[in-house]
Design brief:
Strand content: under 5%
Distance between the termini: 83 Å
Structural class: mainly alpha
Protein name: DNA-binding transcriptional MerR regulator
Order of helices and strands: HHHHHHHH
Number of domains: 1
Shape: globular
Helix content: over 70%
Keywords: DNA-binding
GO molecular function: DNA binding
Number of helices: 8
Number of strands: 0
InterPro entries: DUF1836
Length: 200
């Protein structure tokens, strides 16, 4: 009788749902302004599908109000939120579990110098979906190795793979923060050069 791996099967089923999920593109975001309760409900619906069971932790009315007060997202117009707000919030809420808000804000600000917000948002959607496919392909490879070699329990394999993914996420976080920091330093140097030339 072949060994059974119910946890691997559960992970596979869950992963297939994540890989199948498609973020709504800019053109699919609500075109008309919506109020706070509608915004939160709409975002929670999206977050319940991706990234998982953390929708309530990702977005609340108080979080959104704080983002507006801190000028992380634009101010509302007559207390209504546009597709611009929604795009910002989807990117921020999906990235904030791994990056500080300031780093996310700086990343978006840097890209806004050469791209429009709709281009940045759609690119984010493509990259996040590609990352889901990549990580789940890694999970499949780990599962195949366990089934082929029959060495170790599924619990041991999953614990090891979980650590691998956590360290990969940490390494990516460190690299993203470094790149953003370098971009900020380059911008400051350019401002100094421009100021020096203006004073000559």
């Amino acid at each position: 009788m072949e060994p059974q791996y119910p946890l691997l099967d559960q992970l596979k089923e869950w992963g297939e749902g994540k890989v199948a999920y498609r973020f709504p593109r800019w053109e699919q975001l609500p075109m008309i302004g919506i109020y706070m309760d509608q915004l939160v409900a709409w975002l929670e619906f999206q977050f319940n599908q991706f990234p998982g069971e953390t929708a309530g932790k990702l977005i609340t009315p108080s979080m959104i109000n704080n983002y507006v007060k801190q000028k992380i997202i634009p101010p509302t117009v007559k207390k209504k939120y546009s597709r611009e707000h929604i795009a910002y919030l989807i990117m921020i809420c999906n990235l904030k579990p791994v990056l500080p808000i300031g780093t996310i804000q700086a990343m978006i600000a840097t890209q806004l110098k050469t791209m429009t917000l709709d281009e940045i948002y759609n690119h984010f959607c493509e990259e996040q979906e590609a990352a889901s496919r990549y990580t789940m392909e890694m999970a499949k490879q780990e599962g195949r190795q366990l089934r082929d070699n029959a060495e170790g329990s599924q619990e041991e394999m999953l614990a090891g793979f979980s650590l691998k993914m956590a360290t990969l996420a940490n390494a990516g976080k460190i690299l993203a923060e470094k790149i953003t920091g370098l971009e900020g330093e380059a911008e400051q140097e350019q401002l100094k050069d421009d100021l020096a030339q203006a004073c000559e």
